[in-house]
Specification:
The complex is a heterotrimer of chains A (386), B (293) and C (598). Helix content of chain A is 46%, strand content 20%. The longest helix of chain A is centred in the N-terminal third of the chain and has 23 residues. Chain A is globular. By secondary structure, chain B is an all-alpha fold. In chain B, strands 1-2 form a two-stranded antiparallel sheet. Chain C starts with a helix and ends in a 9-residue tail after the last helix. Chain C is α/β, with parallel strands linked by helices and 598 residues long. In chain C, the strands form four sheets. A six-stranded mixed sheet of chain C has the order 10-11-12-7-13-14, sandwiched between helices. Classes of the chains: A alpha/beta (386), B mainly alpha (293), C alpha/beta (598). At the A-C interface, helix 1, strand 2, helix 3, helix 4 and helix 6 of A face helix 2, helix 3, helix 6, strand 4 and helix 12 of C.
C-alpha cells in the first residue's frame, strides 16, 4: 500500500502542475474590449506558405477596418491559431479559439479535410465559421453555421470542362491531380463534367503532395496523345515545379489548371513556363476594382503579391465586419446576418450572395497568364444560370 | 525510346541524390553504429547555405558550392557533438538516438522556416543552359550534372577510404572501435570526421538537387526516407552498395510511377525494400553476419 | 495479480476526476477532447510498450495499425451499420491480424532493418488509405458514431472520456499481465538475447508474432477510440510522422513503464497545445523539448520524476526501509530424480559434419551418452567442440549426420524444440538476460512447462497464475540449491561466478534430461571451481545427465565419468579420464604434449 501512496503522490504532483497551467491560461474577459475574430491557419509544417498569406490577408483587412474607425466604435482583433496542416491540430486550434467566449466568429481552414474534421464541433458549438475549402460537400451536409468564401469545385470543374471543350477545343484530355482531398474530388468532378461536355479523358494520373520530379507523369501524358492537359493541383509549389518540367520536356499541348496555376508563387517558380497557360480561379489581382486596391495595399504592406489564400480571408473579415456592424456581435446574429444580409457584396474575389447552403460565391474567372501577368479571359456566373 | 531514355536519366539523377544521402547514412552507421534520421536535413541545410551564398552574398557558383559543402560538414560536427555524443553509450542506443535525431529534425526544419520563411527559393544550376539535346533526345542539364558529380564523388570517396591513412583509420574504427582505440587511433576525432563527411555529402546532394527541387524545408525529409531505403537495399555497409541501392530506388520509382501507378509512386521504393529484406535480409552487398555464440 | 494491479487505481481515479476540475463550457470541451485524444494514443502507445519496451522490437508503423483500427471500426460502423461494440471488436481483430502478418514477415530482421520494413508498411498503408475508394479515399469517413450503453449516452465528451479511461485501464491490464506472466517473460527474453531465449525453449517466432499482434491489437483499439472520439477520420492522420510521435510517447514517458507511457502520450498531445502561446516558435520548441528529454532523462519523464520523488521521499521521511534479506541458509532440496547410472543411451551422435562454407569445423564425430553420465568433451582451441554443442542444441544446422535424443531425431529441429525435448545448455561467454532480475532469468527457464496460452493468461485463468507462482517458487528453490539468494538483483550486476550459477539454474529449472555446459569453470578462481564441482555433483544427483566442454584437466578428471577428445574437427580418443589423459595421441594434440594441471 505504501507503494500506491507514493504513486499517488507522484502522479498527483505531475497532474496538479499540468492542471494549474491550464488555469493559468485563463484570463478574465473584458466586455467592451475589441471584437475578436478567430482564425485558423497552417503556420508550421509543409503548407506554411499558404498559411502566411492567409494571416497576412486577414491582418490587412483588420487593419483597414480599424483605420476606418472599427466596427460600431470597437476595434477588430485577430486571434490566430496554427493547425499544422493536420486534422488533429486543426480541431484543437478550432476548439482553442471556440473556448474564448469573446470570439463569436471563426475563419476556418482552406483545406477541405480539416474543415470536415471540424464540422462536428461547428455543429456542436454553433459558431458561424467562414471556410475556404472548396469540396462541394462541405456546405451540403445541412450545417447552418458554415459559410464558404470561395467558389466551390462543382462550379470550378464545370467551368474548366466547358471552357476547355468550347473555347480551347479539347478533344482528348489528360488530367493530373493531387491525391489529397482537394485534388481527388476535383478529379472526379472534372471527369464527370468533361464527359458531359463530350471530351474524352485519355490519361488520368494522381501524384502525392510534394512530388518534385514529374518526368513519369509528363511522359505518360505525352504518350497518351492528349491535346489538352487539365490539372487539379493543390499546392502552388508543386504546380510551379510541374510547369517548369512541362516546358523543359518540350510539351506544347494546351493547358488549363485549377486556381493554384494562377497564383503568384506558381508564376514566380515557373517563370516563362507559366506563360500561355489557362486557369480557373476565383481571385485575380486585377479582376475588379476592389481586387486592384487590395493587391496594391497588400504589395505595399508585405512587399509580396496577394493571392487566393490571402484574398478570401480578406473578404471574409470585411464581410463579417459589415455584418457585425449591422446586426451586432453574437453568434446567432452573425449567422443570421451572413445568411440573409449579404446580398451583392462586391469583394475582391467576386460578388457575394449567400445561398441557403452557405455558399457565397457563384462565379469564376477563366484567366490566361501572359508575360507573368494574370489576365481575365472570361467570367462565368452561375447565379444567373440558376 | 526517347521517352525511355528521358525517364532513365531522370531516375538515375533522382537515384544519385538518394545515393548521396544514403552514403551519409552508411558512413555514419558503419563507423559509429548509429542510424541518423536527420540525414535528410543535412541536404536541406546545404541547400539553404547555397541560398545565402548565391542570393544574399552574390558569390559565384563554384565558390558558393565549396563554402556551402564545408558549412554543411561543420553543421554535421555540431550535430554529432550535441545529439550523438550524449546518447551513444546508452544500452540499445539505437532507440533513443532515433528519437533524438527525429526531434532534432523537427527543430531544424522549424528553425529554418522561421529564418528563411516559407517561400521556396530558386537557386541556379551548374550550367546556364537548361536542356541538352543529344541525338534528338532532350535532357535536363542539371540531371546530367548530378549524375556526373555523384560518380566523381564516389571515386574520390572510395580512394579516400581505401588509400589514405585517415580513411583506413576510419575503416579500422568501423570494424573494431576498441582495438582501434588501443592502436592509438583517436576514435572521437574519427567520429567527428565521419559526421563531417556524411553531412558534407548530404549537403552536396541538397545543393545539386536545389535547382530541380527548389529549396524549402520539406526538401530534406522527402529525400531521407528513400535514401534510407536505398542504403538498406545496398546492404548498409559499403559505398558501392549505397550507390547502387540509390540508383535502383530512383529507377524503380520513376519506372513504377510511369508504367504502374503515379498515385503509388512513394510505395515502390518500399515494396522493393520489403521484397529485398524478406528474401535477402542483408541487402545486395551486405555480408551475412551470424551471431557469435 | 489483481491486487498488484490495483496499485494503478490511484492514478486512474485521479484521471477519472479530472473532468470535474476542468473549466466550464467550450474551454472544458477543448481540454476533454485533448484528453480523449491522449487516451486513444495512450492505448496505442501501450501497444508499443509491449513491442518496444518488452520485446525490444523497433516498429515505426504504429500509426498504420492505429489507422487500420480506425478504418476497420469506421467502415463497420458507418458503411455496414454495425453496432459500436462489434465494430470495436472488429477493429482490434483486424489490426491484430495485420500485426501478426508483419511479425511473420520481419522474423529475421532487427533494429534498423526492422525499422525500415515497418516504415515501408506505414507508407504503403497510408497510400492505400488515401487512394482506395473503399476507405473513402482522401476524403475519409465522416459521421462516425459514438455508443450508448445502459441508457448512458457517450455523445457527451465527459462520458466518452470515462469510457476511454475504462479501456485504457483494460489495455494497461493486458500489458501489466503480460509483463508479469511466464508468457510475457518470453518477450523480455527475446529482447535480451534471442539465442539464449531459444535454447530456453522459447520459440522466437511465436514470441515475435505475439509481440507484434498485441502491439497492433492495442493500436487498433486506440484507433477505434480515436475514430469514435473525433467522429471523422481521413488518411492524413495516419502518417509516418504520427508513428514517430507514438514511438516518442513511449520513449519520453519511459520505455518499460505503463504509467510512464500513459503520461508520455498525454505529454506529447498536450505539449504543443500548451506551447501555443509561443506562436511562431512553438513547434521548434517542441522539437527541442523532445531532444532535451531524450538527452537528459534517459529513463523518460516519468522515470526521472519517480526517482526524483523517491529521493525526496527518502530525504523527507528518512525512514530508510531496509529490507531484511531472506536467511541465506542454503537449503538442500531433495533430488527429484534418483541418481541412476544406467546403460540407457539418451543421446547418440553419429557421423556429424558441420561446414561453414569451406571451413570444415566438424567432420564425422560419433558420441554416445548414457543416462546419468557426466561426459566431458575436451580438445585444443578451435577443435570443433563448441560447434558440436551448437549443432546439438539446434543453433547450427548440421551439414550431415544424425543426432538422436531420447528417441527423437533432432538434426533438423529448431533450438526451442530441442530444448523442450529436455536438452538445456549454458554458453561459453555467459548469455543471461542482463536487464532482468536473477529470479526472472531463472523463471524463464520454466516457460516450456507453461500450459496456458495467450487468452488464458490474459483472462487470468487460475492455472496460469498458479504456474507463474510455481515458476517463481521453483526458481527460488533452484537458486538456493545452487547457493545463490540475491533474487532481485539485476543479472548484469552479479559477479562472473554468480552469473554462471544463474545460467545453470535457468538451464536446470525445467528438469532437463541432459545439460550441456560450455567451459563452465573458465575464468573462475579455485574456490569457485570447487563450488561448481559440488554443484555439478548435485545436478548429477538429481538425475540429470551432463555433457560439458572443459579445458581444466583437474576439474575434468574430478567430475567426468567418460571423456571424448577432439582435434581438427575429429574425435581422436575416448574412454575414462585416467586412461584417455595418458593416451599419447591426446598428449601430442593437446597443447603440444603437456597437460594443464595434470
Amino acid at each position: 500500500m505504501k507503494y500506491s501512496c507514493k504513486t499517488l503522490c507522484q502522479t498527483a504532483a505531475v497532474l496538479g502542475v499540468s492542471l494549474a497551467s491550464i488555469y493559468a491560461g485563463q484570463v478574465q474577459a473584458a466586455d467592451s474590449g475589441p471584437i475578436k475574430i478567430g482564425l485558423i491557419a497552417d503556420l508550421t509544417g509543409n503548407a506554411a506558405l499558404s498559411g502566411r498569406h492567409k494571416v497576412n490577408g486577414a491582418k490587412l483587412a483588420v487593419e483597414q477596418v480599424n483605420a476606418h474607425g472599427g466596427v460600431s466604435g470597437r476595434k477588430l482583433q485577430l486571434v490566430v491559431e496554427d493547425d499544422r496542416g493536420s486534422n488533429q491540430a486543426g480541431v484543437s486550434a478550432y476548439q482553442k479559439l471556440a473556448s474564448d467566449t469573446e470570439i463569436k466568429v471563426i475563419i476556418g481552414s482552406i483545406r477541405s479535410t480539416i474543415v470536415k474534421a471540424t464540422l462536428p464541433y461547428i455543429t456542436r458549438y454553433k459558431i458561424p465559421t467562414m471556410i475556404g475549402g472548396t469540396n462541394p460537400g462541405l456546405t451540403h451536409e445541412g450545417n447552418q453555421w458554415v459559410f464558404r468564401f470561395r467558389p466551390n469545385d462543382d462550379y470550378a470543374s464545370k467551368v474548366m470542362a466547358k471552357y476547355s471543350t468550347n473555347q480551347m477545343h479539347a478533344k482528348k484530355v489528360a488530367i493530373l491531380y493531387d491525391t489529397d482531398a482537394f485534388g481527388s474530388a476535383g478529379n472526379r468532378l472534372l471527369q464527370k463534367a468533361l464527359k458531359a461536355d463530350g471530351a474524352k479523358v485519355v490519361s488520368d494520373q494522381g501524384y502525392t503532395t510534394g512530388t518534385k520530379d514529374y518526368t513519369s507523369y509528363l511522359t505518360n501524358i505525352k504518350s497518351s496523345g492528349a491535346d489538352t492537359l487539365e490539372t487539379y493541383m493543390t499546392d502552388s509549389e508543386d504546380e510551379g515545379q510541374m510547369l517548369k518540367q512541362f516546358s523543359r520536356m518540350g510539351l506544347n499541348m494546351k493547358f488549363i489548371g485549377s486556381a493554384s496555376t494562377a497564383t503568384a508563387v506558381t508564376i514566380q517558380l515557373a517563370g516563362n513556363a507559366a506563360n500561355g497557360k489557362y486557369a480557373v480561379t476565383g481571385f485575380v489581382n486585377s479582376g475588379n476594382e476592389a481586387a486592384k486596391q487590395f493587391s496594391a495595399a497588400y504589395k505595399k504592406k508585405y512587399n509580396d503579391d496577394a493571392d487566393l489564400y490571402s484574398a478570401w480571408v480578406y473578404d471574409a473579415v470585411n464581410v463579417v465586419a459589415k455584418v457585425i456592424g449591422k446586426d451586432g456581435n453574437s453568434t446567432q446574429k452573425i449567422q443570421q446576418g451572413l445568411r440573409h444580409d449579404v446580398k451583392g457584396y462586391h469583394g475582391v474575389i467576386g460578388v457575394y450572395d449567400f445561398d441557403k447552403k452557405g455558399d457565397g460565391l457563384h462565379g469564376l474567372n477563366v484567366v490566361k497568364i501572359e508575360n507573368g501577368q494574370v489576365k481575365v479571359v472570361k467570367y462565368v456566373n452561375f447565379a444567373k444560370q440558376q | 525510346m526517347q521517352e525511355f531514355i528521358q525517364l532513365t536519366v531522370a531516375g538515375l539523377a533522382i537515384g544519385s541524390i538518394y545515393a548521396l544521402v544514403a552514403l551519409g547514412f552508411v558512413l555514419i552507421y558503419t563507423t559509429v553504429d548509429v542510424v541518423n534520421f536527420a540525414q535528410g536535413d543535412f541536404a536541406m541545410i546545404g541547400a539553404y547555405f547555397m541560398v545565402t551564398c548565391v542570393l544574399s552574398w552574390g558569390l559565384p557558383w563554384w565558390l558558393a558550392f565549396v563554402i556551402s559543402v564545408v558549412l554543411a560538414a561543420i553543421a554535421g560536427v555540431v550535430f554529432q557533438l550535441l545529439i550523438y555524443q550524449p546518447v551513444k553509450n546508452r544500452p540499445r542506443s539505437f532507440v533513443p538516438i532515433l528519437i533524438a535525431t527525429v526531434g532534432a529534425s523537427i527543430f531544424i526544419e522549424q528553425a529554418y522556416l522561421i529564418m528563411y520563411g516559407a517561400v521556396p527559393y530558386q537557386v541556379p544550376g551548374m550550367f546556364s543552359v537548361q536542356t541538352v539535346s543529344l541525338g534528338g533526345i532532350t535532357l535536363y542539364s542539371q540531371y546530367l550534372a548530378i549524375i556526373v558529380i555523384t560518380a566523381a564523388l564516389v571515386v574520390l570517396l572510395s580512394w579516400f577510404l581505401e588509400k589514405t591513412k585517415t580513411g583506413l583509420q576510419m575503416q579500422a574504427t568501423a570494424q573494431d572501435p576498441d582495438t582501434a582505440k588501443l592502436m592509438g587511433i583517436h576514435t572521437a576525432w574519427i567520429a567527428a570526421l565521419v559526421f563531417a563527411i556524411s553531412a558534407g555529402t548530404g549537403g552536396l546532394a541538397g545543393i545539386l538537387v536545389a535547382p530541380v527541387f527548389n529549396v524549402s524545408i520539406s526538401m530534406g525529409s522527402s529525400i531521407a526516407l528513400k535514401a534510407f531505403a536505398a542504403a538498406v537495399v545496398g546492404g548498409f555497409s559499403s559505398v558501392r552498395g549505397s550507390i547502387i541501392g540509390g540508383l535502383i530506388i530512383g529507377l524503380v520509382e520513376t519506372y513504377g510511377a510511369t508504367y504502374i501507378s503515379g498515385s503509388y509512386r512513394d510505395a515502390f521504393a518500399f515494396i522493393v525494400l520489403i521484397v529485398f529484406l524478406v528474401f535477402r535480409p542483408y541487402g545486395l552487398f551486405g555480408e551475412k553476419t551470424s551471431d557469435k555464440v | 495479480m489483481i491486487k498488484q494491479f490495483l496499485k494503478f487505481s490511484p492514478l486512474m481515479l485521479f484521471f477519472a476526476v479530472v473532468p470535474f476540475f476542468l473549466p466550464e463550457g467550450r474551454a472544458g470541451s477543448y481540454y476533454l477532447t485533448l484528453m480523449i485524444l491522449s487516451g486513444a494514443y495512450a492505448i496505442a502507445a501501450l501497444g508499443m510498450t509491449v513491442l518496444l519496451g518488452y520485446a525490444g522490437q523497433v516498429s515505426l508503423a504504429q500509426a498504420a495499425f492505429f489507422g487500420i483500427g480506425s478504418y476497420a471500426f469506421s467502415i463497420l460502423a458507418v458503411k455496414y451499420g454495425q453496432d459500436f461494440w462489434l465494430s470495436l471488436f472488429g477493429a482490434v481483430v483486424i489490426a491484430l491480424i495485420f500485426g501478426a502478418l508483419i511479425g511473420l514477415l520481419v522474423l529475421r530482421l532487427r533494429t534498423h532493418y526492422l525499422a525500415l520494413v515497418t516504415i515501408g508498411f506505414q507508407i504503403i498503408t497510408n497510400l492505400v488509405l488515401n487512394n482506395w475508394d473503399f476507405t473513402g479515399g482522401s476524403d475519409g469517413i465522416s459521421g462516425i458514431p459514438r455508443p450508448s450503453l445502459f441508457g448512458i449516452d457517450f455523445m457527451s465528451d465527459q462520458n466518452f472520456y470515462w469510457l476511454t479511461l475504462v479501456f485504457i485501464t483494460l489495455a494497461a491490464f493486458v500489458v501489466y499481465r503480460l509483463r508479469y506472466s511466464l508468457l510475457g517473460s518470453t518477450l523480455l527474453a527475446l529482447r535480451e538475447d534471442e539465442i539464449a531465449a531459444s535454447t530456453s525453449g522459447i520459440s522466437v517466432v511465436a514470441a515475435k508474432i505475439l509481440a507484434f499482434s498485441v502491439c497492433a491489437g492495442l493500436a487498433g483499439l486506440g484507433g477505434a477510440f480515436y475514430a469514435s472520439g473525433s467522429m471523422y477520420i481521413s488518411p492524413n492522420v495516419y502518417t509516418f510522422s504520427q508513428s514517430v510521435t507514438i514511438f516518442a510517447m513511449v520513449l519520453i514517458g519511459g520505455q518499460e513503464s505503463i504509467v510512464g507511457t500513459i503520461l508520455g502520450a498525454a505529454l506529447l498531445i498536450f505539449l504543443p497545445e500548451m506551447l501555443r502561446f509561443l506562436h511562431d516558435y512553438y513547434i521548434a520548441v517542441y522539437g527541442l523539448a523532445v531532444v532535451v528529454i531524450i538527452l537528459f532523462m534517459p529513463k523518460g519523464v516519468y522515470g526521472s520524476l519517480a526517482s526524483g520523488a523517491e529521493w525526496g521521499w527518502q530525504k523527507l521521511f528518512a525512514q530508510r526501509q531496509t529490507e531484511i534479506p531472506t536467511a541465506s541458509t542454503v537449503q538442500q532440496a531433495p533430488p527429484e530424480k534418483a541418481a541412476v547410472r544406467s546403460d540407457e543411451v539418451i543421446l547418440k551422435i553419429s557421423d556429424l559434419h558441420k561446414y561453414f562454407g569451406g571451413v570444415k569445423a566438424v567432420q564425422g564425430v560419433d558420441i554416445t551418452i548414457r543416462r546419468g553420465d557426466v561426459v566431458v568433451l575436451i580438445g585444443p582451441n578451435g577443435s570443433g567442440k563448441t560447434t558440436v554443442l551448437n549443432t546439438m542444441s539446434g543453433i547450427y544446422k548440421a551439414t550431415r549426420g544424425e543426432i538422436s535424443f531420447c528417441g527423437h531425431d533432432i538434426v533438423n529441429k529448431s533450438a526451442h524444440q530441442i530444448s523442450r525435448l529436455g536438452m538445456s545448455r549454458t554458453f561459453q561467454n555467459i548469455r543471461l538476460f542482463a536487464e532482468l532480475s536473477v529470479i526472472e532469468n531463472v523463471a524463464i527457464g520454466f516457460y516450456p512447462k507453461a500450459t496456458v496460452g495467450v487468452v488464458g493468461t490474459l483472462l487470468l485463468r487460475p492455472k496460469g497464475l498458479r504456474e507463474d507462482r510455481q515458476a517463481e517458487e521453483k526458481a527460488k528453490q533452484t537458486l538456493l540449491l545452487l547457493g545463490l539468494d540475491r533474487f532481485h538483483e539485476k543479472a548484469k550486476n552479479l559477479s562472473y561466478g554468480e552469473q554462471r550459477i544463474v545460467e545453470i539454474a535457468r538451464a536446470i529449472i525445467s528438469d532437463p534430461e541432459i545439460l550441456l555446459l560450455d567451459e563452465p569453470v573458465a575464468g573462475m578462481n579455485r574456490e569457485e571451481k570447487i563450488r561448481l564441482s559440488g554443484i555439478l555433483r548435485t545436478i548429477s544427483g538429481m538425475g540429470i545427465t551432463i555433457l560439458l566442454i572443459e579445458h581444466d584437466m583437474s576439474f575434468v578428471s574430478e567430475v567426468s565419468t567418460y571423456l571424448y577428445v577432439m582435434d581438427y574437427g575429429r574425435l581422436i580418443s575416448e574412454g575414462v579420464a585416467r586412461e584417455v589423459l595418458k593416451d599419447p595421441a591426446v598428449i601430442q594434440a593437446y597443447l603440444g604434449g603437456e597437460i594443464e594441471d595434470a
